[in-house]
Amino acid sequence: xxxxxxxxxxxxxxxxxxxxxxxxxxxxxxxxxxxxxxxxxxxxxxxxxxxxxxxxxxxxxxxxxxxxxxxxxxxxxxxxxxxxxxxxxxxxxxxxxxxxxxxxxxxxxxxxxxxxxxxxxxxxxxxxxxxxxxxxxxxxxxxxxxxxxxxxxxxxxxxxxxxxxxxxxxxxxxxxxxxxxxxxxxxxxxxxxxxxxxxxxxxxxxxxxxxxxxxxxxxxxxxxxxxxxxxxxxxxxxxxxxxxxxxxxxxxxxxxxxxxxxxxxxxxxxxxxxxxxxxxxxxxxxxxxxxxxxxxxxxxxxxxxxxxxxxxxxxxxxxxxxxxxxxxxxxxxxxxxxxxxxxxxxxxxxxxxxxxxxxxxxxxxxxxxxxxxxxxxxxxxxxxxxxxxxxxxxxxxxxxxxxxxxxxxxxxxxxxxxxxxxxxxxxxxxxxxxxxxxxxxxxxxxxxxxxxxxxxxxxxxxxxxxxxxxxxxxxxxxxxxxxxxxxxxxxxxxxxxxxxxxxxxxxxxxxxxxxxxxxxxxxxxxxxxxxxxxxxxxxxxxxxxxxxxxxxxxxxxxxxxxxxxxxxxxxxxxxxxxxxxxxxxxxxx
Length: 589
Ligand code: ADP
Ligand code: MG
Fold this sequence. Notes:
With about 600 residues, the chain is an alpha/beta fold. The chain folds into 3 domains: about 1-235, no CATH class; about 340-415 and about 505-585, 3-Layer(aba) Sandwich (Rossmann fold), CATH 3.40.50; about 430-495, no CATH class. About 55% of the residues lie in helices and about 10% in strands. It is built from 23 helices and 14 strands. The strands form 4 sheets. It has a 6-stranded mixed sheet, with helices on both faces. It has a 4-stranded antiparallel sheet with strand order 6-5-8-9, covered by helices on one side. The protein starts with a helix and ends with a helix. Bound molecules: adenosine-5'-diphosphate and magnesium ion (MG). Magnesium ion binds next to helix 14.
């Protein structure tokens, strides 16, 4: 099985590249050319839609940019074809950055709508521009030459197309297994957790949008030299929908789904164009109807696409542990014990008429474990969200290590050394525990998308995984490092979040109900871990419901009720307070 996984790609690559030398009929070489061209575009959609959760109907327009750039520069200006590739890609990048910058900050359906609009605009522009030959397009594009050989169209061009397609697949595969790749994989789960780990979700949305556009533009450039003529039809919005169809059919979450989907669509399309008119008697675009029906069937019975059937045969082997001896990641200068770390001053949060946090003040000194307790709905989690920048303050000041952090986006607060867990666990279920924890090390590492695609990030990855494993050991979870996070029980998921927060090398750790859902033994182990962290000098703000757990662990406790700070004191003072008994213990017991 693992033989398949290891040799599957090289075997497939060699097969595709020797195909034109074999006695394969021209018809199938042509089909294979189309499949490679389509796969390049679908590959972008796998990244964009399948992994990052962003839907684009406008990829055909980027294909058009690549194709028209090649056609126009070669036929009207005599520019060398290899040069036009760079111009086409550059134009696609500019277009993607402009369209992306306008739409990617908006949530929901704006991006799909914007990509439809963008596709339509480009289609009608191509069809109405005199310089681009209107709907007749441009004819007489020269063929590609390499090393003095005319690559012509069919057989000669086959390997050029497939080298690009295979390199694209390799680059995307590498990207997904990297620092930026994990950031991209975190986009689908909403932005809160990723931003709290220091990731700019907007940046990565833009990155995947640009990469998808580049892959499409390369496909378009190849297409122009394959057809030797361009007109607007292959770049219309219906083709854009077809690309999305290929990706979804093949399996929009998998690199190889792009290839499978492209292959199936191309072959069915071709057969149906011959078969359907014979069956029905008249000609028309009946294959579109068949595709619609096929898509519904696939979405119902194989929502992960056809590739999921193959995937079952390719069990992923556990990641090789090859990071022993990797140099440790850089650490931040820690505050001195007793230094004023966090100063929360009269913070307030109103949700409409509801005052969730009512002018609350408290301080944390370095090395302290402070408990934040109070009945459900008292405003504890909201206070956390105000400190970490997840929610905007209505009023008030928050200083961290002497500097104001009020109003900063949460990724910048994370950069200053505040890390947190969430009351409702936020993680990437389809990543391993180790990869989830490695997300915490995002700000301590640097590799960018280009380095990741070229595999220049391996040394840093080893250092990061060594750190992630160290944090899992610290929390007693090293044995579960390679399990999928989504398969863990709630208790271990919470512990994983703590390991992830520790992986950021925080100066202050905010834990929102870390013991909720833990069994007695697990709770004791968590208590030991927190005490250990304290002896190491970590400062912790802890929201907790279990009174015994908080009492035995904290230096001081802040009690909240209905958004207001009721009392602050040592555990003994809080326990003795009649007001707390009435407000908190009274409602609990
Ligand atoms: P706790 O964590 O102490 O249980 P929360 O901070 O979650 O309490 O909630 C405090 C109050 O604010 C509750 O009444 C809750 O319903 C309300 N609240 C929390 N988040 C929101 C929100 N995003 N919109 C409106 N109300 C909210
Ligand atoms: Mg809460």
